[in-house]
């Protein structure tokens, strides 16, 4: 059902895409595919990671940040070996990895500082 609605929406929009935007529209990783929409919505994870930079370090989950960093870097690599190469997917996953790796480093530095104070 949802794929039929999606196809109908794309077919409707197809008529209104200007000629200059046709190469993007028809691209194998363009708006007609999941390769376009998945990275677009995944930027929400990057924005959440940036928002977490203001969060008190005690409230940052090292497991969650570590898992997101690992998957970000793994999927960055994957996005360069699939066909078609998906640079949008690469960039969003790289930023997911970087923002969450930063959080992991923040937590580790905080824990080391607490250990040094306790000794």
UniProtKB/TrEMBL annotation:
It is found in: Mitochondrion inner membrane. PANTHER family: UPF0041 BRAIN PROTEIN 44-RELATED. Mediates the uptake of pyruvate into mitochondria. GO terms for biological process: pyruvate import into mitochondria. InterPro entries: MPC. Its main location: mitochondrion. Keywords: Membrane, Mitochondrion, Mitochondrion inner membrane, Transmembrane, Transmembrane helix, Transport. Belongs to the mitochondrial pyruvate carrier (MPC) (TC 2.A.105) family. Coiled coil: none annotated. This is Mitochondrial pyruvate carrier. It is a multi-pass membrane protein. It comes from Daphnia magna. GO terms for cellular component: mitochondrial inner membrane.
């Amino acid at each position: 059902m949802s794929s039929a609605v999606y196809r109908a929406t794309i077919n409707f929009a197809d008529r209104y895409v200007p000629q200059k935007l046709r190469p993007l529209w028809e691209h194998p990783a363009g708006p007609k595919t999941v390769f376009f929409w998945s990275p677009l919505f995944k930027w929400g994870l990057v924005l959440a990671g940036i928002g977490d930079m203001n969060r008190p370090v005690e409230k940052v989950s090292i497991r969650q940040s570590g898992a997101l960093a690992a998957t970000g870097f793994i999927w960055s690599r994957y996005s360069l070996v699939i066909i078609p190469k998906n640079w949008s997917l690469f960039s969003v996953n790289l930023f997911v990895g970087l923002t969450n790796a930063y959080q992991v480093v923040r937590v580790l530095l905080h824990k080391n500082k607490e250990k040094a104070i306790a000794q």
